[in-house]
Amino acid sequence: MPELPEVEVVRAGLEPALAGARIDAVTVSDVRALTRHAGDAADFEARASGRRVEGVVRRGKFLWMPLEPRAGGNATPEGEAIVGHLGMSGQMLLRESGIPPLRHERVRLDIRHPDHGELAVVFVDQRTFGSLAIDRLHPTPDGAAGGRGSGMALVPGQVAHIARDPLDPAFDEDGFRYAVRRSRSAIKRVLLDQTVVSGIGNIYADEALWASRLHPERLGRDLPSRSLGRLLDEVRAVLHRALAEGGTSFDAQYVNVNGQAGYFAHSLNAYGRTGEPCPRCGTPIVRVSFTNRSSHYCPKCQRRT
Predict the structure, then answer these.
(1) What local confidence, expressed as pLDDT, does residue 73 receive?
(2) Which segments of the chain are extended strands (E)?
(3) What does pTM read for this prediction?
(4) CATH number for 245
(5) Is residue 11 located within the same domain as residue 116?
(6) Residue 94, domain member (yes or no)
(7) Which of 47, 59, 83, 138 could form a disulfide with 147 if both were Cys (CB 3.0 to 4.6 A apart)?
(8) Residue range 104-110: average pLDDT?
(9) Looking at 22, 52, 213, 293, which residue is catalytic?
């Protein structure tokens, strides 16, 4: 599943083409892409068509595109946004206007930008776990910007329960520390809890824990303050490195808006390296089952003590 670096790469790629563009037409080819939308395909198409996109915003693994307010009595004070989640294999691709339907295409937005002209934004999803929806925007409880890419203190209702990510200037570090120290769960489970800290998935949790020399099943409440501080530093460091390298691609399911893969997979120290020597001590990396996922760690460097 795309994590913070991959979704941020997509957001940054969409922003120049979408911010300020007007949606000329919307075509829903597969209603399974609208599982989070309250209406049907016709409702989604009608509510998005003809409106100007005011930006592209991200919090954790969610994207949203605020829309200019609608005229008439149905308008809300805070407005609406198209909310997107890439799921396991979702892609948001920028293409020339009028191209034939792409393989696994689910939704297409035909847009017109004042500088870039006519373009198509195509939502492609092989495994159909991703989704698009139109949702109302709500004020953020802390009064800070809703996410990366906008200064507006607004967030879609579907995203309001998602915690801020560690790269967000408004991230509540004290609140994160408190949540970890009172948790009876394994530290990796806490890192994957999007209501505690968002944007971190299996890949970057394993990498940050390896860099911090912490066993993934170490209980959060047992972590000393210094270890917790180091873990948070390593989480931020690995996210920044992955961003610089365009994210992590193991197959063609994650690509940026131009269809290009990220190359951070070549820099991984633990995730996906089962049986290979630990870059730090040479001990073979092990893989264990973890809540329908897998954890990768060094049994020597990351002892469960």
Answers:
(1) 52
(2) 22-28, 57-59, 62-67, 80-85, 90-96, 105-113, 117-125, 131-139, 154-156, 286-290, 293-297
(3) 0.94
(4) 1.10.8.50
(5) yes
(6) yes
(7) 59
(8) 98
(9) 293
What is the predicted pLDDT for the residue at 249? 83
CATH label of the domain that carries residue 114:
3.20.190.10
Q: Is 61 an annotated catalytic residue? A: yes
* Final residue in a domain of this structure, among 86, 121, 156: 156
Q: Is residue 152 part of a domain?
A: yes
Is 2 annotated as catalytic?
A: yes
pLDDT of residue 11 exceeding 90: yes
Listing from the earlier edge strand, what are the strands of the sheet with 57-59?
A: 57-59, 62-67, 80-85, 131-139, 154-156
79 vs 152: CA distance, rounded Å: 11
State the pLDDT at residue 153. Answer: 97
**Overall number of domains in the chain:** 2
Q: Which entry of 2, 66, 166, 216 is annotated as an active-site residue?
A: 2
Catalytic residue among 3, 15, 45, 80: 3
Single out the catalytic residue among 61, 95, 106, 148: 61
